[in-house]
Specification:
TIM Barrel, lyase, 302 residues, DapA-like, 8-stranded parallel β-sheet, 12 helices, alpha/beta
Length: 302
């Protein structure tokens, strides 16, 4: 029997939330705060959650912490959301994480862009194939940040692994995305705009049907307003949301996205929802820059 992954595909064609990982005063993962933030997302209407994404500080977590974050998310979500667990690092680690996600009841895994100074086109296929073949029951979503990768390589991967069903595309070039998606097979995959709300309108115009979001941690309704406008083809309405979030996302993107997570946690801290601390190599905002983030968060309808 061939798995169709219909539920998983539908979940990718949505706001794909990347929850933050809140830390306690002693620097450890704070389970209670994490559960509270997850409930806030679920109560706000979010139905796709990605534990261990970049906004969750994936690369700063230990293997045990990544398992804890997976557990907390799956337990808290229950049947209210589809879970897309971030996996990565070396192949054995990524495979072990994917199998753990499967055992805990996740429906999909997102494979982080391989962190290696020498990534060949065929090696990219081999890396993802090893992970996808280890969990054939799960939907697999490559996270693509490599502008040099050819769309034909994704098609090659999916030929070998039919559970590769979606793509988180995060190259900041809408024309390149349009070409890549068509070379890989526009209708074959669910295309997720992996650079969040700022790129969602341009990527939707080229074939994306979902987008990732870190901002959603702060204001779920804002992200939902964006996707509803895009689904209906109302680009002027989508750009109204774009204008609303522009400064917040500019602050996140500044200095090579150095404050991508920092700004989100600062906004949450200003609302009393979690501590502002992030782990190196990220760093909390200096006192002089916190007021602007707090003002933006306070101005949104939460």
């Amino acid at each position: 029997m061939t798995t169709t992954f219909e539920t998983q595909r539908a979940a990718l064609a949505d706001v794909v939330a990347i929850p933050v990982t809140p830390f306690a005063e002693d620097g450890s993962v704070d389970p209670d705060a994490h559960r509270a933030l997850l409930r806030r997302l679920l109560d706000g209407g979010i139905r796709t959650l990605t534990p261990n994404g970049n906004t969750g500080e994936f690369y700063a977590l230990t293997p045990q912490e990544r398992q804890l974050v997976t557990d907390l998310t799956i337990d808290e979500a229950g049947d209210r959301a589809v879970i897309l667990v971030g996996v990565g690092h070396d192949v054995p680690t990524a495979v072990a994480s994917a199998r753990y996600a499967r055992e805990r009841g996740a429906q999909m895994v997102m494979v982080h862009q391989p962190v290696h100074p020498y990534v060949s086109q065929s090696g990219w296929v081999d890396y993802h194939r090893a992970i996808a073949e280890a969990v054939p029951e799960l939907g697999v979503v490559p996270y693509i940040r490599n502008a040099q990768l050819h769309g034909a390589r994704l098609a090659e991967l999916a030929d070998a692994c039919p559970n590769v069903i979606g793509v988180k595309y995060a190259v900041p070039d809408a024309a390149r995305f349009a070409a890549f998606a068509r070379d890989a097979g526009l209708d074959r995959f669910v295309w997720v705009a992996g650079l969040a709300e700022p790129y969602a309108p341009s990527y939707f115009s080229a074939g994306a049907t979902g987008f990732t979001s870190g901002l959603v941690n702060v204001a779920p309704s804002v992200s939902l307003n964006m996707i509803e406008a895009l689904r209906s083809g109302d680009y002027p309405a989508a750009m109204k949301v774009w204008e609303q979030i522009r400064r917040f996302e500019e602050l996140r993107a500044a200095n090579g996205s150095a404050n991508n997570v920092t700004v989100v946690k600062e906004a949450l801290a200003s609302l009393g929802l979690c501590r502002r601390e992030v782990r190196p190599p990220s760093r909390p905002l200096p006192e002089s820059e916190r007021a602007e983030v707090a003002a933006i968060a306070a101005g949104w309808s939460i």
